[in-house]
Amino acid sequence: MAADTLLTAVRAHLKLDPGHSVILEPIKRGASGRTIVRLKAEGHPSFIGIHYTLDRKDNRYFLPVARFLKKAKLNVPEVLYDNPGRNIALVEDLGEVDLLSIADQPWEEREPYYRSALEQLDRLFYTRPPKDLELSPAFGAETYEWEQEYFIDNFVETHLGLDGTAMRSDQHLIKLRENLGASHRNLIHRDFQSQNIILHEGNAWIIDFQGLRLGRQEYDLASLIYDPYLNHSEEEHEKLLAIWEDISEERPVPELLRDCAIQRLMQALGAYANILHNQTIDWYAQHIPTGARLLLTQIEGTQYEPSLRPILEKALEDD
């Protein structure tokens, strides 16, 4: 059904006759409840076709956010055609190369793309949305609480089979979400990781931005620096922070970046476990040990270590 609708859309957009050849290639990316395909009409540039449901509220924000970010001169794909009544859109095809796909290349070849990605993050920091642009709710304490619950439900209890009751009342985790939720004045992507950064024409381009909202910039920064898909070394962490300092002319407060990394890594592990067990997409299982190790590094010597270390060590037992 979604494929037929998207084929109809590309024929309407290009004014093709019914017999014109159009090839549809599925794109398996993430787990947002959307159907995403590459559409290739003979004699025309390719398009990315998106069919979305409204089961996830943030999916309805994609098109208006895309237009807003494009107008603000951020590197995002252009919306070329949309039909809100059928929940479909055609957007610019930026290609298939993302930041994850070059993870094995030498640092010197990756560095310009990291710099470009962080320049986009810095630009986003200074971008102000119009008052009538509807976004996902700002990152407050309740959002961080939802992420912690997501981690406990899916990773601690479902994936590891442990009792997460004590974690739900852990005063340090409660304080973590309250502190992080006390300020949310700037726009953040919300999922600023390697699969959502496409490399196109020598620069980094941002996709999957439907979760755009107000929050702490350090959350996005931690999402990229401590991305389990990329598994950066400590030396690379430092290099990325140096690039960020060069771009923004300041370094994040170490404790704040660490707390954002802890929160983000809990969210990521919850997501991997949820997709693995509830959507049975096995690809995410390989990234759970890396996420657990990164989180162990961040909690070492902190007040979060007593509650989180036994859980993370359990996750690594069979690795």
Task: Give your account of this protein's structure.
The mean pLDDT is 94. Helix content is 46%, strand content 14%. It has helices at 2-14, 62-71, 107-125, 141-159, 165-168, 171-180, 217-225, 234-248, 254-278, 288-299, 305-316; strands at residues 22-27, 34-41, 47-52, 79-83, 88-92, 186-188, 197-200, 203-206, 213-215. The protein has a 5-stranded antiparallel sheet, with helices on both faces. It has a two-stranded antiparallel ribbon with strand order 6-9. The chain contains 11 helices and 9 strands. The longest helix is centred in the C-terminal third of the chain and has 25 residues, at 254-278. With 319 residues, the chain is an alpha+beta fold. The chain folds into 2 domains: 2-92, Phosphorylase Kinase, domain 1, CATH 3.30.200.20; 100-316, Aminoglycoside 3'-phosphotransferase, Chain: A, domain 2. It is globular and about 65 Å long. A hairpin with a 6-residue loop joins strand 1 (22-27) and strand 2 (34-41).
